[in-house]
Q: What sequence folds into this?
């Protein structure tokens, strides 16, 4: 199918990155809870400034003309509410692309949406500067596919569009495995850097290195029980290689969960940690490290949700 009209729902860093890149190839509408400036600037990894004008809208005042495809780029904990606000305004059959971390909302929305659903696993990095500017922090790669292995032609067409727009992508038939692999890396890195407020590269140093190794072992055991293998198929050694490779490649980065903690926003701890812990419990495996980090991050979320004490 021809995909000329794209709705990007969730104008955070990733959403704006996708919108501004796609704006050269298609009609793009950036949709959020509030209206952002129509003129947006993208700072590329090469430090060039790309200025683009996009259509903007609020999720409670959607455009009349239906999209050809909807990209849901909210955080994982907001994805289902955002889809609920959209669903009645979309004709049956409009494809939905899920860009969330973790492995929580994807199966549920794949069942709920009245049309094809693709899941995206991406290593593109971006962060927001202000309401009118976003920085593309580092080039990455995106995999697209559906959890049921269908819609290969749709995935291939969208991958070609993204690639042409400067976001290299490819269609795959094993997106479930790739989502679990990304979740595994995030589950080791993000809770540690968010909890201790450090950059990724500091995980190489004491005392954090030992904590990384503990989480890798828990993740490896759990995913082995789930039948998920690392990219090179070498068990624990493969997971260790994958995680440390990402830490080295992103040493200067502030992970998204750390950025959320520093900004006082809700984090994706449930979407990233809870599926792993649930899988471990299903196989009667202990995950004390993962469970401890989830409890700490849950406590932090509860504290943020409480009203301030009156003076």
A:
């Amino acid at each position: 199918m021809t995909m000329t009209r794209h709705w990007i729902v969730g104008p955070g860093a990733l959403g704006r990155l996708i919108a501004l890149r796609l704006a050269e190839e298609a009609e793009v509408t950036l949709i959020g809870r509030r209206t952002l400036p129509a003129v947006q600037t993208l700072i590329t990894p090469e430090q060039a400034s790309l200025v683009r004008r996009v259509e903007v809208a609020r999720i409670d005042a959607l455009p009349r003309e239906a999209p050809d495809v909807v990209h849901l780029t909210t955080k994982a904990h907001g994805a289902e509410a955002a889809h609920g606000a959209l669903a009645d305004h979309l004709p049956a059959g409009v494809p939905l692309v899920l860009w969330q971390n973790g492995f929580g909302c994807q199966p549920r929305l794949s069942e709920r949406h009245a049309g094809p659903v693709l899941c995206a696993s991406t290593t593109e990095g971006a962060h927001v500067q202000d309401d009118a500017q976003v920085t593309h922090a580092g080039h990455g790669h995106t995999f697209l596919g559906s959890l049921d292995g269908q819609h290969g032609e749709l995935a291939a067409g969208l991958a070609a569009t993204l690639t042409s727009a400067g976001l290299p992508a490819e269609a795959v038939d094993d997106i479930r495995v790739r989502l679990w692999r990304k979740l595994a890396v995030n589950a080791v890195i993000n809770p540690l850097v968010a909890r201790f407020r450090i950059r990724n590269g500091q995980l190489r140093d004491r005392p954090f290195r030992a904590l990384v190794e503990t989480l890798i072992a828990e993740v490896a055991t759990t995913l082995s029980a789930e039948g998920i293998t690392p990219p090179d198929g070498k068990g624990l050694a493969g997971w260790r290689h994958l995680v440390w490779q990402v830490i080295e490649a992103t040493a200067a980065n502030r992970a998204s969960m750390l950025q959320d903690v520093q900004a006082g926003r809700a984090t994706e701890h449930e979407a990233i940690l809870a599926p792993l812990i649930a899988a471990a419990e299903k196989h009667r495996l202990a995950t004390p490290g993962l469970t401890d980090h989830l409890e700490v991050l849950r406590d932090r979320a509860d504290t943020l949700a409480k009203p301030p004490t009156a003076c």
Remarks:
- DSSP finds ten helices and twelve strands in the chain.
